[in-house]
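sorry for the late reply, my laptop died twice this morning and i had to redo everyting from scratch. anyway the thing you sent over, i finally got around to it. pasting the sequence first so we're on the same page, its 599 residues, then the predicted structure underneath. double check i copied it right bc i was rushing
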Amino acid sequence: MEAVRLLPYNSTFLRPKRLELAPSTFNGAHSNAQKRERTIKTFTVAALQVPVSPQHLQLPRLKVSPDSLQLPPGYLGAAVPDRVVLEDGEGDNMSDVMGYLTKIITSEVYKVAITSPLELAPKLSERLGVAVWLKREDLQPVFSFKLRGAYNMMAKIPEEQLKNGVICSSAGNHAQGVALAAKELGCSAVIAMPVTTPEIKWRSVERLGATVVLVGDSYDEAQTYAKKRAKEENRTFIPPFDHPDIIAGQGTVGMEIVSQMKKEGPLHAIFVPVGGGGLIAGIAAYVKRFCPEVKIIGVEPSDANAMALSLHHGQRVILDQVGGFADGVAVKEVGEEPFRICKELVDGVVLVSRDAICASIKDMFEEKRSILEPAGALSLAGAEAYCKYYGLKGENVVAITSGANMNFDKLRVVTELANVGRQQEAVLATVLPEEPGSFKRFCELVGPMDITEFKYRCNSDKKAIVLYSVGVHTVSELEEMQERMKSSQLETYNLTKSDLVKDHLRYLMGGRLYVQNEVLCRFVLPERPGTLMKFLDAFSPHWNISLFHYRGQGETGANVLVGIQISSREMDEFRERANNLGYDYAVVNNDNDFQLLMH
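ok and here's the structure:
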């Protein structure tokens, strides 16, 4: 950059350079006693140099930003054009689909999985005018659908090979699925998990009898370790989604839906959460053969939209960064085999916001008194948005509630954002003159609307900012209030969609200030001991920290808004230090909402 390039808050995070990692060390042989013993170790991972044969050489994968494809809530984007339904024996696609049908029908998943119930959501159905059916995969023994694919693949491993054990990398539901499958099959399992994995999650895996190894700061590093150890110990690596047997195991969900919906009438669509694509690929392979008229619709977070972007570009892409709130689907690249199936059979993808996911978690609690994890509520959020966008009425739709392994710490964020996601609360800012009676006049103009949050501090300037939240019943109600403010010459801004305001600025109200040479940045810090001191050591006391707001979100890391006084000639040094930290960050000085509330 020629000078300081200031990015708006919603822009892509700058991807830091990867740190050089030290070689890993572990014992290759394990006695039976050691296999049963709990072993929690922490490693760093070396970059593996794997020889690649000429036939496997590929062009570099296209790297894109999630922001490059943003859709209106509920809009069916990355839609696949209408396709001709093949008859028996027509073309290679038919034999391919038949191969998956055989794998799904003959799957042995029911030795560990239940046929999950399909339940009507009466309150949501009444609100939308559509029969919303919940496919309750959150009721599986490990509270997620993931054990279906893991067991199906592991059950097909030859007995002699299975004696060597299995290994996988995962920070959540896949790990528990592999551990339970290994327990049922009587083989050893090693689970590589990032060191940032919350204790409650790795202990859950450990209780199922697996050996847990905490390794690396990210999933990629854990996966590198797992694949290396698989080779050295001749263990079978169990991927989370990119394998035909994994896909077929997940496809049993679709087989159950087809059977369960026979008595309920025609089905319009099945909404499926998408991470790597194994679940939606398996469901599509089965459902499109028996019920080709049923739409198979993927749902992704708007900041983790790898499948939508891959379908949009007609090839698998890599996200340059991925939002971690719905951590169960936070992948940068979809699987090769799932994508091959999805580009032929899936009808499109709906994108939803973090607020909408939180609203659906609340919807599920009010319907069934169950708490879904964010990825588990994803399809419910997509189904509601789709029905509203297209004005769907009188149809049957199915949403797969895919998991309930919720981190308790995240509930605080969910409760704060749920009403915003339901459009039952709006966050606003109004500019008031600093004069006697102005505050009273403002309250009169708010009128009968419920104020749920209010922040105001006297300012030495002639104008002050009031930041507040109001309960909203209808869109027109909010518009009428804003019109009353406008007619009284009180500028009012709707900040409901600003993550910067909701995550940070609403907690920093208390007078505005101009700080010379202040560079405002947003960092995502991993939740582990020592992270904060590592962060501060990089910048302090070299530069003065003028603002700091830390917002923890459980295992997905903490959002940190930090102001640092840096002269323009020192920006290159700042960028170098920030990159060497290895954390995602963005410079957000240009954000209009920050300028309004803080300057």
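Residues 1-57, 84-91 have pLDDT under 50 and may be disordered.
thats about all i looked at so far, will dig more tmrw
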